[in-house]
Amino acid sequence: MWVSPEDVLLAGALWITERANPYFILQKRKGHGDGGGGLAGLLVGTLDVVLDSSARMAPYRILYQTPDSLIYSIIAHGSSRKEITEHWEWLEHNLLQTLSIFENENDITNFVKGKVQGIIAEYNKNQIVKEDDDTDKFKEASAKFRKIFAMPEEEKLVNYYSCSYWKGKVPRQGWLYLSINHLCFYSYILGKEAKLVVRWADMTQLEKSATLLLPDVIKVSTRTNEHVFSVFLNINETFMLAEQLANIAMRQLLDNKGFEQDCSLPKLKKKSPKKVSALKRDLDARAKSERYRARFRLPKDEKLDGHTDCTLWTPFNKMHILGQMFVSTNYICFTSKEETLCSLIIPLREVTIVEKADSSNVLPSPLSISTKNRMTFLFANLKDRDFLVQRISDFLQQTTSKICLERELTGSLNSSDDEVRKQGERTFNLNDSSVPTATQTLMTMYRRRSPEEFNPKLAKEFMKEQAWKNHFTEYGQGVCMYRTEKTKELVLQGIPESMRGELWLLFSGAVNEMATHPGYYEDLVEKSMGKYNLATEEIERDLHRSLPEHPAFQNEMGIAALRRVLTAYAFRNPNIGYCQAMNIVTSVLLLYAKEEEAFWLLVALCEMMLPDYYNTRVVGALVDQGVFEELAREYVPQLYDCMQDLGVISTISLSWFLTLFLSVMPFESAVVVVDCFFYDGIKVIFQLALSVLHANIHQLLSCKDDGEAMTVLGRYLDSVTNKDSTLPPIPHLHSLLTDNGEPHPEVDIFKLVRSSYEKFGSIRSDVIEQMRFKQRLRVIQTIEDTTKRNVVRTIVTETAFSIDELEELYMLFKAEHLTSCYWGGSSNPTERHDPSLPYLEQYRIDVEQFKGLFNVLFSWANGAHSDPLAARFFRLLDENGDALINFREFISGLGVLCHGDLTEKLKLLYKMHVLPGTEPDEPDSAFEATQYFFEDITPDLSNSKSLHYSLSKLNTTDYHHYLKLWNQESKSKLENTKNLPKLNQVSQFIELCKSLYSMFSEDAAEQELYHATATVTSLLLEMGEAGVDDAFQRRNQEENKPKTCEEEAESEQMALMHDIKLEDSSPKDTTTSMAMLISDDETKDDTSMSSYSVLSACSHELDEKLQCEDIAEDTVLVHSDPGADGDKGSRPSGSAGHLDKGLPHSTSIDKDWAITFEQFLASVLTEQALVHYFEKPVEVAARITNAKNVHEVGRPLLSSSDYEISLSG
To answer: If phi over 0 gives left and psi between -120 and 50 gives alpha, with beta otherwise, what is residue 405?
Structure first.
């Protein structure tokens, strides 16, 4: 690229001059390309890699010089020889002659510099230069990354870091490249090159650690290798980015949602580091937004715009609290520096006024925000108040316009249809007016009071309600409430039953989703009503198992409400649909919240607070099970080994976490756990689980098996009581599983919760997230390995491949799928990968991916005809016709080629070519084949061809008919062989011949195989011709028989169709062709003439199309007529003469020319060379190894593990 001229004092240092003229010099940097310049080149190359000079300095440059000066100016540089050569040629053609006109050297210098700057200005004018584009340095690094690792343009580099890679005991200094899909390392030290490529999706462990020798280390593990990197300048940034990219890869494996770059990024600030790409900023912004949403429980599409330090005036204690303000599209949030002191969430939909207050020494740069519920929040010490007010005003304007639009839409709907006002009743009736509907919380409808209305429990409940009302008065009520340590204290004391639903909505963040989606739930219920799928079937099965002991779910009202909520969520999120344990949690939500509120609480639970818990593989619960094991090792180490030996942790954690203790604790106690969970998140569940283990530590240590340990824990949890509950005791099903021993002493739930906070309250949410990442890698890779084992176990009995070979092939199959997800394919990745499907169907590939595997694994993949052959093979394997094949179908085809006998291989080859219409441009008949191959000598038949196509299209047979027949056959080989259809098109036969010739292009016995193939081709053509003669004679005999009236009518109709089909197909009159059918002798002569004209076309096609130049001269492709001047092969002049007479009659060849599989098999068996070729064993292990090492330019076929490090030089 052209650059602004910069002076260079030493033009020859570290550079080699390749071209020169009086004014310009083209140079190449030492140590780059071939002939690097000896020891100096090795040193320069090493320094460039270690010091990152190559990212700042391109390997080629052009200097400008004046004849009498020692100062040079660099005017262009390039990363490739092609780029720099284009610039050099432009200079020679456009500037050299012009410069000779000038007399003054200063004028020449000014002219050259002005011209170069003009080119740069013109380029920038034409290019859309964005403020957030990557810097030139980063673009150079990206180009170097793609060149070194042969990555395509689609593989985006995120960032690169200097580090050391430990290979054995020797560190290699180089550069770590982090791209969207790969971690790569490159080192070049004194001529020795080291490369490493690891796919994020293959990582099983990524951790930051420290040792005595290496204080900061990043360790990357895959299934087969472990890699250690050290000596980072900023290890925290490197690890956080690597962690984020690995998370994206795991997410792609989990639900197939790939990475999409965010185009709406904030502008690049002036103080931003120069070595930051737009993609890196994108990922940084995502990470910040994720932390922001998690901290304040905001909707998943909320994006953080920025944050700033400030103070907040808190009227409840009359103090200015130091903290941070966060501003996003729809919210303003605040959190104190001391986390538990105060936090605040202000939705912009609630804001009425934003204004700048008067500044003073006590209150510098204040900002006042007022809300609809008459609360005013005063922020101060804002560094850039004017800019902040402008941003908030912009967001506020957008929010206001959204609300107005929603009101207009709602108003127009209500005014256009009066019935819509009764939408709630109509929606909730389930098509049956007799079914009662839940218009309030189920708990208030089915509350059973004790006989004593004013007992101490009710008095205590009343006091709790008053405490919360006083709290609302002092700290505010609703979403804008000040959340302080006092709020947490009230939650730990227990939320009153009458306020539970309201506060659950508030603390979970579900209130925001419900406020911004009015009418959403009703629409979902209406759409899902009366529809059935697998999820609805599972829901119906579990409805009566959801809190059956509670009176609210012993009648149709509660069951119907539960059905509507679960079905609506299944339609909202088909990826989850319905999972066991959702019914238990949702039934509790319905007790304390209205139907719509319960729905949004379920959304918050499944999508924010317990991510990935409720899916077919309960990945989130398995991840948290791993986290719980780590926490148990840290906090109860004396119990950990015992629990691991008994295998109890994995059993208890799933049941405890999935149902939030609702299924293992008495109901009135478990809802207190749910109170704390909605306020403090998942850490509450971990704390409580650890407390339960700690409380039973001595009993568990004396247990001898898992059953005894589960009994101990079950009895303890059954004894957890809530003495403050005003509800009558509800029998707990779990208590039925305990033994008949003495009951465990009662445990107060509030004391248990407080004890968990006191002993294990130091567990922080951010630490849990880090531990979750580590466990997520392990869990998802374990699931992938389980899927692989299940697939292999399913098909190992159907094939001759060993288990190890099948596992290697499965990883290659999966890698090809992932590669297409990274860099595009001919089909949508979501159609090919669905984790919810059965194991065999989870990964599928399309025809383009199959071609890639075909070329490296299949022994028939040679020559230019490999792709068409792969396409035919793919269509044969695609049994259901969805343009995708699964692993079983793939192995069935590969198994025949690798382990099948000669007959099976030939049958497969035959089937591939008997399928009609494989190629889009393939002629449909021998008649059209003749015309296709002899366009230059045949008359214009375009009209007849189109008419013939339109008529023949009506009788076209779908190739899936053949596939169904073959797949249903489980009979003997002999019977199976007889049922194969005939190869009845010359064009299909030609494709078969091309496939055969293509297979041998790299074989050792190439010439011998070509001879054998030519002999077989000639033999099969003669067999097909003999069939034509027999069929022709049979027709003549039938025509001479007397006809009935019906047959005469039918023959007249066929003749009419024949005339329509051929009326323009020949310049000769149709009576001429009819006269050719008079006598048998003439018929035979004419048949031979016309058929050999077609055969000559075939031989011409085999000569020209197959491009087999190295066939010996004496090879006979087609036996020509011995009476035709004694010439061998086809003669253009003779062919033209026969073709004119033969074309009208060639329709009989179209119908009658055919060969059977038995003929094909018998012909091949006559040639020993072909027999040896098809019986030759295939080295499967060698082909798999080769496929794993293949690394095509622009499209690497990555293996299941990382590349081995390669050392060269």
So the answer is: alpha
Q: What 3-state DSSP class applies to 1041?
A: coil
Instruction: Kindly tell me the sign of the dihedral angle through the C-alpha atoms of 447, 451, 454, 460.
Output: negative
What are the start-end ranges of the E strands in 295-397? 304-314, 319-328, 331-336, 342-347, 351-356, 367-371, 376-380
Map out the domains of the chain with their CATH numbers. 2-127 (no CATH), 136-255 (2.30.29.30), 278-407 (2.30.29.30), 619-776 (1.10.472.80)
Give kind and range of the element (H or E) at residue 5: strand 2-8
Query: pTM of whole model > 0.85?
Result: no
Residue 1193 is given by DSSP the state T
Please report the pLDDT score of residue 869 as a whole number: 85
- Asked if 496 and 466 touch (Cβ cutoff 8 Å), the reply is no
Secondary structure of residue 722 in the 3-state scheme: coil
Tokens of 89: 């040629």
- Phi, psi of 233, deg, nearest 5: -75, -35
Q: What is the pLDDT of residue 1080?
A: 38
The number of residues in the chain equals 1209
Specify the higher pLDDT residue, 1200 or 711.
711
CA 131-132-135 angle, 5° bins: 95
Both structure tokens of 1023: 């067999």
For every residue of 632-688, DSSP letters joined together read HHHH-HHHHHHHHHHTHHHHHHHHHHHTTTTTTS-HHHHHHHHHHHHHHTTHHHHHH
DSSP letter for 134, please: P
Q: pLDDT at position 1086, please?
A: 39
Helices (H), 728-802: 749-760, 765-795
Q: How far apart are CA 23 and CA 585, in angstroms?
A: 81
Q: In what helix (H) or strand (E) does residue 184 lie, and over which residues does it extend?
A: strand 182-189
Q: Is the pLDDT of residue 294 over 80?
A: yes
Residue 176, strand partner residues: 161, 185
* 608 within 8 A of 297, measured Cβ to Cβ: yes
* Cα 801 from Cα 667, distance rounded (Å): 55
The reported pLDDT for the residue numbered 862 is 76
Contact 30, 37 (CB under 8 A): yes
Let me know the angle formed at the C-alpha of 204 by 202 and 206, rounded to the nearest 5 degrees: 105
Long-range contacts of 1186-1193 (CB under 8 A, 24+ apart): 1186/856, 1187/812, 1187/853, 1187/856, 1187/857, 1188/808, 1188/812, 1190/856, 1191/150, 1192/150, 1193/150
* Lookup: tokens for 716: 């303890």
* C-beta of residue 847 within 8 angstroms of C-beta of residue 807: no
Contacts of 744 (CB under 8 A, 6+ apart): 715, 716, 718, 719
The CA-based dihedral angle spanning residues 79, 80, 83, 84, taken in that order and rounded to the nearest 10 degrees: 80
What is the rounded CA–CA span in Å between residue 135 and residue 36? 29
Assign residue 1126 a region: left if phi > 0, alpha if psi is -120 to 50, beta otherwise? Answer: left
How far is residue 781 from each of residues 137, 147, 502, measured CA to CA in Å?
A: 36, 30, 40
Residue with tokens 């050719």: 1076
Question: Could you report the per-residue pLDDT of 630-666, keeping only the tens digit for each?
Answer: 999 999 998 888 888 887 887 787 888 888 999 889 9
- Which of 973-977, 1134-1138, 1180-1184 shows the lowest mean pLDDT across its residues? 1134-1138
Tens digits of residue pLDDT in 780-796: 999 888 888 888 988 88
- Phi and psi at residue 505, to the nearest 5°: -60, -40
HSE, CB side, 13 Å, CA atoms: give it for residue 436: 11
CA distance 491 to 534: 39
CA-CA distances (angstroms) from residue 606 to 508, 540, 615, 769? Answer: 11, 20, 9, 17
